[in-house]
Amino acid sequence: MRRDIQKDAVPVLCASCEGRNKGICSTLDCEQFVELARTSRKSAAASGAALLGEAERIDRYATILSGVVKLTKTLSDGRQQIVGLQFAPDFLGRPYRSESTLNAEAATEVVLCSFPKDAVERMMQESPELERQLYRQALDELDEAREWMVMLGRKTASEKIASLLVMFARHAASSDTTGRNSARFDLPLSRADIADFLGLTIETVSRQLTRLRNDKIICIENNRLIIVPDLRRLNARAGN
Amino acid sequence: MRRDIQKDAVPVLCASCEGRNKGICSTLDCEQFVELARTSRKSAAASGAALLGEAERIDRYATILSGVVKLTKTLSDGRQQIVGLQFAPDFLGRPYRSESTLNAEAATEVVLCSFPKDAVERMMQESPELERQLYRQALDELDEAREWMVMLGRKTASEKIASLLVMFARHAASSDTTGRNSARFDLPLSRADIADFLGLTIETVSRQLTRLRNDKIICIENNRLIIVPDLRRLNARAGN
DNA sequence: CGGCTGGTTGACGAGCGTCAACGAGCGTGG
DNA sequence: CCACGCTCGTTGACGCTCGTCAACCAGCCG
After folding, report:
1. Is B190 exposed, middle or buried (0-12, 13-18, 19+ CB in 10 A)?
2. How far does the CA of residue B80 sit from the closest CA of chain A (Å)?
């Protein structure tokens, strides 16, 4: 299961790559780009595949081309918490540390483009733009993490669920028509994942979702497709 | 109350400054250092003073010379959560964003050395070392934030309290003799702050502390001085 | 058909929040 | 000097929310 990041490796034809103008590739000049491309590997991972284990050595970084990756931490007795969700075209990896402090797992089908750790780090030395881009992503992740800390520490179960749905609606909306007051998206997480994300149990997640459905704030189809007819009503349940 | 960061401003004699060889100052070369020093201001803030408000414009960055700063976020109905604690010689500020998304407040007496925002940002453009240093701090803060997310989402009240005490014990130990199995430190936070940090109420904090005292795992003097005779026993209560 | 995974629903109870009373320390003002 | 008000912390009684345990259903695959 481990090491899925490396199987299915095919030479990358960057010219046609959807990530060429996004993520870290977009900051590189032509020469750097060619150098990085030479060592890159495109790979796919099935939903649930482990990409990186806690306390495991990191030897490759990657950018997410499509799909959702969840970052988790686990206590010794098995209690688990999702501490980050990453979407395309996020950068995956923790510079300046040789061992991972968390697990990375594919939450959906995921396509990655990975590079050797030292190639990226060398390039970071040479290219302030690259480092700046990564710094910005880290700052954004930090802002997000702090937003979630408020959610985990201070919101009730139903506010947590509503907040999560709002977040997914926003993520879906950004690639969709903007300024809409309704939303429709596929949940990228299972009930168990949602529970691990919100610091709840699957039963509580399930109950809160059916409550939102009974209150006609959302429709659920096939357990995964969510339709929000009125985002304001959902937002009103999110706390903030 | 606001703007305490600017009062008490005195010219900084950097030569004798305890922060000269720590924090961002340590990464600057002589020329840069002189330039930054010219615009720096040393200032003190009393415990409880607001350093920066949510949605307020940021016009100065700072390094913490002594004391503890708490970063908080507040929901519209007043529920509050501490999302970060910063100690000397941390850098205070959020580059690449003009408005703050959180409140910064002095948790203890605090001494800061502040610089104009644009001076620091100009210097970040010129000095990759400076940017790298800030990037590293952001990554460390991100690691910490994720650690706390596990705590907030998955730990019980007593585990939360124990974890917090362990964290303070470590912070105190790093400046003290190392490798000790006991600890003794002043709580830099009030019961209300602890509650806001752990996502609990002050009553629960109080109850859990007296439980640890009754179980002889800690001694409490004057409500603030904590003595931990056996760190392993405390650690065993912290979960992980 | 049976087993398995993922989700829902119900009954029950523990943990922690809420509300309230109370004590200690401390500065203020008479 | 004591009375007082205030803040901060502790303790108790009570109840709600959410976790626990269990049964059950739907879909899927062998």
Report:
1. middle
2. 7
Q: Are A197 and A85 in contact (CB under 8 A)?
A: yes
pLDDT at A2 over 80: no
Give the bases of strand D that a protein CB approaches within 7 Å.
8-13, 17-22
pLDDT at A6 over 70: no
Per-residue confidence (pLDDT) for residue B175, from 0 to 100: 64
- Which residues of chain A make contact with B141, given a CB cutoff of 8 A? 142
Contact across the interface for A73 and B102, Cβ inside 8 Å: no
Domains of chain A: 14-152 (2.60.120.10), 155-236 (1.10.10.10)
Q: How far apart are the C-alpha atoms of B91 and B64, rounded to whole Å?
A: 7
Query: Rounded to an integer, what distance in angstroms lies between the CA atom of residue A163 and that of residue A223?
Result: 18
pLDDT digits (tens, 9 = 90+) for A24-58: 888 888 888 888 888 898 999 999 999 998 878 88
Pairs across A and B, CB distance < 8 A: 116
- Pick out the nucleotide with least CA–C1' distance to B203: D10
